[in-house]
Design brief:
This protein is α+β, with helices and mostly antiparallel strands. The protein has 15 helices and 15 strands. The longest helix is centred in the first third of the chain and has 20 residues.
């Protein structure tokens, strides 16, 4: 069992994991507010020479304060770690919504696109270019409003330098001029990515999608795509003006905002007066000022799986509806998924190890947490999944599964395949027994 505090925050379970950082659920003990805490090891940042990049990401997220951008509250540091305190967004990824529903209706797609464009325009007004816009980096809050996250690849133009030169982003969403390795306009490149997102929202699939990169790049460079028949002429016309391979004649944000299709039911977002942004905490963290360290308190007992309390269960279920914990619909898989088992924790772990190895994955297991690693299907990078066992009631365990690296769609396929081999582990009982277990789990 782990009880942990960082400064005024009580730290809970891991809700996300990437190559260089973990994101944990936390609660401000002074205000009761739920937050997301991004945790980075200083040793990792120094080893990979990422100090400037991380400092830039944090500074950018403090500068951009907009209702459709995930808010950064503050930055803290201990002797070994950096903690980025972010707004806790509960509605999941836009990507998951598309996977679950398929294509979205025209009005819903337009509303998300309007919110996306407002936020991107605001970033550009601050001289910030995101450079990795895609549905996986677009979150939804509890009201269904869009929030841009992950400014890890963002760029602030250097003094006197007009064009950006780094090739970055996810290939399917990247503008042709970025792939050409010549200088490019960050604003035009972000607009292209917004156009690809609009297409995905309305079509339910990518405009440019090839398994081998040379063919993909050829299609992107020629803007070789067609719209499905259900996309309206107004939307199709706008998509073609955005996905113009020539950045010089590609429609700009002002042009999109004056487009008849875009303007329908458009309500410009209201946000308060411009706040004065203080970067003192960012400087303090990265200048290693001794008295800026926060206290870390941890009590660990590793004799069994972590015990999840009712409060954590409720937060991960986004409200009082705990049914998501027990939902076994295999057609809908989020980047983070979970299932319930009544088998002993050691049996769950050993069974998952055997199955993962049979799938050709490398297994790293410690206590009741496991990391599975392999090569992604297109052989362009690593695929990794983290599994963790929690005790939610006596003899009732929840296995939390989340993507740590690789493509989200590939993770969806992995999860379905993995669960199909776990029939003797996953609890399938329905009816009154389920409600009894829910009651005992929430006590």
């Amino acid at each position: 069992m782990v009880a942990r505090k960082v400064g005024k925050y009580e730290v809970g379970r891991t809700i996300g994991e990437g190559t260089f950082a973990k994101v944990k659920f936390a609660q401000n003990m002074e205000t009761g507010e739920s937050v997301a805490m991004k945790v980075l090891a200083k040793s990792t940042i120094l080893k990979h020479k990422m100090v400037d990049q991380i400092k830039r990401e944090i500074s950018i997220m403090k500068i951009v304060r907009h209702p459709n951008i995930v808010r950064l509250h503050e930055v803290l540091a201990s002797r070994t770690k950096i903690y980025i305190i972010l707004e806790f967004v509960t509605g999941g990824e836009l990507f998951d919504k598309i996977v679950h529903q398929g294509r979205l209706g025209e009005n819903e797609s337009r509303r998300y696109f309007q919110q996306l464009l407002d936020a991107v325009a605001y970033c550009h007004s601050k001289g910030v270019y995101h450079r990795d816009l895609k549905p996986e980096n677009l979150l939804l809050d509890s009201q269904g409003n869009l929030k841009i996250s992950d400014f890890g690849l963002s760029a602030l133009p250097q003094q006197g330098v007009g064009l950006l030169h780094t090739t970055c982003g996810t290939p399917n969403y990247v503008a042709p001029e970025v792939l050409s390795h010549q200088g490019y306009d960050g604003s035009a490149a972000d607009v292209w990515s917004c156009g690809v997102i609009l297409y995905v929202l309305m079509a339910g699939y990518l405009p440019f999608d090839e398994t081998d990169l040379p063919t993909l790049y050829t299609k992107i460079n020629a803007a070789e795509f067609s719209c499905p028949p259900w996309i309206s002429p107004g939307a199709e016309s706008l998509i073609h003006r955005i996905l113009d391979p020539n950045p010089k004649i590609r429609i700009k944000i002002e042009g999109i905002r004056s487009d008849a299709w875009f303007k329908k039911n458009y309500m410009a977002v209201r946000h308060g007066e411009e706040e004065e942004v203080n970067l003192d905490d960012v400087r303090a963290v990265f200048d290693d000022i001794e008295d800026q360290y926060v206290s870390e308190q941890m009590e660990v007992n590793e004799s069994g799986p972590l015990i999840m309390n009712a409060f954590e269960m409720i937060t991960l279920s986004q409200g009082l509806n705990l049914s998501a914990l027990f939902d076994r619909r295999q057609d809908y898989v989020k980047r983070q998924t979970r299932f319930i088992s009544c088998k002993p924790a050691k049996t769950i772990i050993s069974t998952m190890e055997v199955i993962a190895e049979s799938m050709g994955l490398k297994v790293h297991s410690r206590n009741y947490k496991m990391r599975l690693e392999g090569i992604s299907a297109n052989k362009t990078g690593q695929f990794a999944v983290v599994l963790e066992v929690f005790e939610v009631a006596p003899s009732l365990f929840m296995v939390d599964v989340r993507k740590a690296a690789g493509d989200t769609l590939e993770y969806h396929k992995f999860y379905k395949n993995f669960c199909s081999k776990l029939d003797n582990i996953i609890w399938k009982q329905e009816g009154t027994a389920k409600s009894d277990l829910l009651k005992s789990a929430s006590r």
